[in-house]
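Protocol step 4 of 5: obtain the predicted structure for the target chain.
Materials: sequence only (see below). No template structures provided, no constraints applied. The aim of this step is simply to have a reference model before the mutagenesis design in step 5. Sequence pasted as it appears in the construct record:
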Amino acid sequence: MTFIEMLLDAQQRNGAMLCVGLDPEPARFPAGLKNDASRIYDFCARIADATADLVIAFKPQIAYFAAHRAEDQLEKLMEHLRRNTPRVPIILDAKRGDIGSTAEQYAKEAFERYGADAVTLSPFMGFDSVQPYLKYEGKGAFLLCRTSNPGGDDLQNQRLASVPGEPLLYEHVARLAQGPWNVNGQLGLVVGATYPVEIERVRQVAPTLPLLIPGVGAQGGDAVATVKAGWRPDAPIVVSSSRAILYASSGEDFAEAARREALRTRDLLQAARP
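Step 4 output (structure tokens):
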């Protein structure tokens, strides 16, 4: 299956639009694992095993592994996910953005070294920074569009006087992703849950693209408003929650607590569908 086919399959099979972000911070691990970076794989694998039937995707954030010299544990985790939950797509959150041979190496890292089904990218160097990833048949890429951080206004919310209709920059990114850039049919967009009005606008501009929506949970995004703004039956939304699920308990029951929080969030999202 292509990446988008995997998303649609997981959406239907698990009744989910929830994505669990795997952002391991050893200082926040439960007793017995706390402050031990060598246990990153163990922590993430237990979370994944406890929540796999509740999610539309998993999203490991590469920086949380690289900062602790744990890339080998990320490789092991990706293998674990592919082996144990092969029908749940894996989005490598890397936010790469470079051109030429460097972009080709980043694409190789994401899809060959780690075996991701999709990757997050920064599109602000233009299409040639995205194109190397689209050469991988069936693999997906989510372009940063309207991010959840306040500083996103600095660029993304600026009007482009040189473009017909003078769209905002994030609207222009959405149009490009919906249209001429989507050469393999597997592009999506990243839109933060903290901006439901912008989610609705992106959905108007890009009605068929999957949306990756971080910011629900610890970042304060409104889950119900997010779903109402972005959900379409044939264009999945991937609503990511990380810390609220990963650190639902600081005790030995952390995996069970993560499952309870994931179940609560999944059901909340599902109930908000129009």
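Step 4 remarks: The chain has a mean pLDDT of 94. The two ends are 28 Å apart (CA to CA).
Proceed to step 5.
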